[in-house]
Write a structure and sequence with these properties.
This protein has 348 residues and is mainly beta. It has helices spanning 2-15, 28-34, 285-288; strands at residues 43-59, 68-85, 88-102, 110-125, 132-142, 147-149, 155-160, 166-171, 177-180, 186-201, 204-218, 223-225, 234-239, 243-258, 263-277, 290-302, 305-315, 323-333, 335-338.
């Protein structure tokens, strides 16, 4: 009887938990391995980022500095709605960038940066191969406010319309001379094609796209400055034209975050090779190729403060001769809501 009791007691002690016994839960490495991978946000995800900046200076009697007040006001708004469900994604973006300046010698405020962009795009990413995707979308890009020409002294103007006829006019000092209307010029683009994600890394994301594209330009008869240095006493203006083009487009986007995610960058190249144009032109085919280059750099000072620089260079010879170059440097004091990634790998 005593032997049986000892046998039962030893059996209970063997099965009972003990601080010296092996843990019942799996080790940390096994737990991490069995832990489900984090899922990307599914369904509708809104996002909003608002940035404001302001500067002011006043000088009087300072050597090398004109007397007067200098002031700058800026707004940077990025908002939209993303929908994600499995391999499907529908991205919608509204971007507004505005900046006005007041400089000594010019009484009214002068428009510096003026852009509104609306993008809507659907994409489907294959599971095999995971680096291949299909896309289709539309993009509207325009200047939001009307454009005016302001000079500190009276200026002789020479205007050339789309038919080559030349007219003359006089711009009074400190008087706004209308050049473009609201939402003009407006560029509406439709595109569809395939994309390849060549590299995916927090420090470098590289992707390529190719597809068909069509765009329409609506200028509302506006004018743009195209000064001829050979005529210093006259300021030349040329009229913008309305037209449409169709062709193929190639895109490249490279971006990421480095330095412990404090420094972000993005580079973009878009080249359109047209095969149809709605207007007659004497331009050679090489000058009909549209090119858009972009670069952006952001430095995260605090979670609510970011120093951002962007550069855009665009060549659309049918719209205006030469390159259109815009630089923007802003200190954004921002409120961010939601999660957002660039639509179609476009410029941030």
């Amino acid at each position: 009887m005593m032997i049986r009791l000892l046998t039962v007691a030893l059996g209970v002690l063997t099965l009972a938990p003990s601080g010296l016994a092996a843990p019942s839960s799996p080790p940390e490495a096994t737990a991490k391995k069995n832990r489900p991978a984090p899922q990307k946000h599914q369904g509708m995800v809104p996002f909003l980022t608002v940035g404001l900046n302001f500067s002011f200076s006043q000088s009087q009697g300072v050597v090398g500095v004109p007397d007067g007040i200098a002031m700058a006001l800026g707004l940077n708004l990025r908002t939209g709605l993303d929908f994600r469900r499995g391999p499907h994604r529908w991205s919608n973006l509204l971007l507004v960038q505005e900046a006005v300046t007041k400089v000594p010698g010019i009484e009214p405020f002068v428009k510096g940066t003026d852009l509104i962009e609306v993008t809507s795009e659907y994409s489907y990413r294959f599971s095999r191969p995971p680096w291949l995707s299909l896309y289709g979308g539309i993009r509207l890009r325009a200047t939001l406010l009307e454009g005016n020409l302001i000079r500190s002294e009276e200026t002789q103007l020479q205007l050339t319309n789309t038919h080559g006829a030349i007219f003359t006019d006089v711009l009074p000092a400190q008087h706004p001379y209308p050049l473009t209307e609201f939402l003009a010029p407006l560029l509406l683009t439709q595109s569809a094609g395939a994309g390849v994600r060549a590299l995916k890394h927090p420090a470098a994301n590289l992707s390529f796209r190719a597809g068909v594209i069509a765009h329409e330009v609506v200028s509302q008869g506006g004018y743009v400055v195209h000064d001829d240095k050979a005529t210093p006493n006259v300021l030349e203006l040329i009229q913008l034209r309305d037209y449409a083009q169709g062709g193929v487009e190639a895109r490249m986007t490279l971006g990421g975050r480095v330095a412990d995610k404090l420094l972000g960058y993005q580079l973009g190249v878009r080249v359109m090779f047209p095969f149809a144009t709605s207007v007659r032109t004497n331009l050679g085919y090489d000058r009909l190729i549209n090119v858009e280059l972009s670069a952006a750099l952001s430095i995260h000072i605090f979670s609510w403060a970011t120093l951002e620089y962007s550069l855009t260079a665009m060549r659309m010879e049918l719209l205006t001769p030469g390159w259109q170059v815009a630089n923007l440097l802003m200190l954004n004091i921002s409120l961010s809501v939601g999660h957002h990634r660039s639509v179609g790998g476009s410029t941030p």
